[in-house]
Specification:
Largest sheet: 6 strands, antiparallel
Order of helices and strands: HHHEEEHEEE
Distance between the termini: 26 Å
Helix content: 25-40%
Shape: globular
Strand order of the largest sheet: 3-2-1-6-5-4
Oligomer: single chain
Strand content: 15-25%
């Protein structure tokens, strides 16, 4: 569900892109969670499939393009990287990240990122990219908690935005949702 008041609302093309990505991402995440006992999801990947009659012709073309690119089996990391690159290329955003949501610990866990001058969540004490952070603070955390998309045309105006990467000025963050719970967060950023 994508809602925002007034000039913050997403246009039809933006919504179509997001809606086209959801079934593919949700199915991949559910399949990965099924093999990871620390994260569990109720339901099956088949329950996330949309019927061809549910999609517009443009959505069908987008999914056909994605499917053709992903004919070989891939790990979740490879799939998320490919989807992130595709989202960056399609939207023109300059940077982006995909994080999984850990509901047990109330954390957002960074999986892949691209285009930032530094790691989006900063670095840990040994200089490695910080992968896990609480969902209590940050735009990604807000999206994970509320299972609703956030569009920030000016990140400096949002109290949830954590300015780890100073060149970011605008951000779109949206959840991949199944059974009312956020499974993952896709963030697209631009200066």
């Amino acid at each position: 569900e994508l809602r925002a008041p007034g000039p913050e609302s997403l246009g039809p093309a933006d919504q179509e892109l997001i809606v086209s990505l959801l079934p593919l991402l949700a199915a991949a995440i559910v399949a990965e969670f099924a093999t990871n006992s620390a994260l569990s999801v109720v339901g099956s990947p088949a329950a996330l499939q949309r019927l061809p009659s549910d999609l517009t012709s443009s959505q069908n073309r987008l999914l056909t393009d994605i499917t053709a690119d992903m004919e070989e089996p891939r790990s979740l990391g490879d799939l998320l990287t490919a989807v992130l690159r595709w989202a960056l290329d399609t939207t023109g955003a300059e940077a982006g990240a995909v994080s999984l949501v850990d509901h047990e610990s109330h954390d957002v866990v960074l999986q892949v990122f691209e285009g930032y001058g530094m790691a989006p969540f900063g670095y840990d004490h040994v200089g490695e990219p910080q992968r896990r952070h609480t969902w209590e603070h940050s735009v990604a955390g807000k999206v994970a908690r509320d299972a609703r998309a956030v569009l920030l045309r000016d990140v400096s105006l949002d109290p949830d935005y954590q300015p780890v990467v100073p060149e970011v000025r605008a951000e779109l963050a949206f959840p991949i949702v199944h059974a009312g719970q956020s499974l993952a967060i896709l963030q697209l950023d631009s200066p």
